[in-house]
Amino acid sequence: MEQDSVHQKLACHVHRHFGLDFKRSQWKSMEHHLSRAAIALQRSPRPSAVLEWLSSDRLSASEYEALTQNLTVGETYFFREKAAFTLLRNELLKPRSEATHPKFRQLRIWSAGCSSGEEPYSIAMTLKEFLPDLDKWDIRITATDLNAAALQKAKAARYRSWSFRDTPEFIKERYFIKKGDTFELIPEIKKMVTFQQLNLIGESYAPVVPYPGSCDIIFCRNVLMYFSPEVIEAVAARFWEALTAEGWFVTSQVELNEVYFGLFVRRQHGTGLFYQKSNKAVSIQLPPVENYPVPLKKLTPGNRPKRQEETSDERRRAVAKRVTPLPGNEKYLAEKKAMLSLSQIRSLFEAQNYAQCIKVAERYVEEHGYSVLVGEMLARAYANTGRYAEAEQQLTGILTTRPDYPAMLLLLADILAEQGRTEEADAQLVKVLYLEPDNKSALFTRSRLLTHLGKTELSQKHLRRLLSLIDLLDDAESLPELDGLSAGSLRRMALSETS
Known about the structure:
alpha/beta; seven-stranded mixed β-sheet
């Protein structure tokens, strides 16, 4: 119980500093990331020791950097979810390119949570491909991320083949120069993007948004899903203010949610769904330019900033009408019912009542459609009850949408290994280690598989890497990602096999 109290406090402070939302079922994963940050700072990785400095009002520069590098693990690829780039071409570039007045040849684009740069560079290449007179346009592409290390990688613009897994070959040949086993972006495209470090729950968006209504389109994909509902709504409201009168807000297709993004109108374009600002649907009194942006205050659960439509009957009705166009607020009630079902599924899973969890989750899919979150819990519940074929089917669906999801790749590897499909399991672990080279669970599991496959030298290499990662841990320290195996036990095991 005392350990739970420490984890709860850690989760609250992580939320306070970064807006990241670690549920109870994710506390072990959070502890793992915080331990890595502490080791990088050459401090004790014990949760109680981390809590001492994480609870401070302000983090030092070194603490902030270590935490952002370990809590935010972004991995993406070029031209991910192509529907977003179709929207960019058809709704912004095409109408403006056909206009004659110079003022229509201006464009302000923000890639929020850009990770290692594949998204903003994909935007830049789209512009280059579509606009033959690009040099006559006034275009600014600003890309931001919390993680300074990711931004450095983005600025270097050197990528491996995995980043091109959904990229046309002609794009790679036209805009990249092969250097060894990497591909470097040409300077012409590099210089189109400006990178800046930015915390989306920080007080100011001024480096990116100098005044309200200055952005034509904001890309923020696979970022908000890691935030708490309170933070998502607050950030979405600030995006609304940042956009032009009919500006576009692009989320990942797995993040669509009318409750969180109620200030926007949802539009379908091609195969994708996106959000557009509409001043006709809701009116928000913007602060004076000199006071913009408004700081987010105490973004803690239960204390989210009040949106003005929540204090005005007229505005609340306007939002409700737009968000729930069906008579009797049916859509709104359906959203609420779905959220309650999600909560029930999570509670059943955490209580290890897998049979009932599966029933409720399957009913959820029938009533509300597929959800990655529900699919993940279903896969784990199936696996925990020995229903491997169904678990594999769920994981295949998730990984089709999110092929760079290490936790699901690990689970799939475990399921395949349980069925004796060793080489298939190993292929999944290779993907995990590409995404997260220091993933202890993947290193440990792959070393076991490689031994089974007779690849002793490579197996020992993985074990030696594991030893280096736990070098600063006491023998008694447990490793949550290895089911509580102690650092001392792992050392003895590894040393006996590598000596």
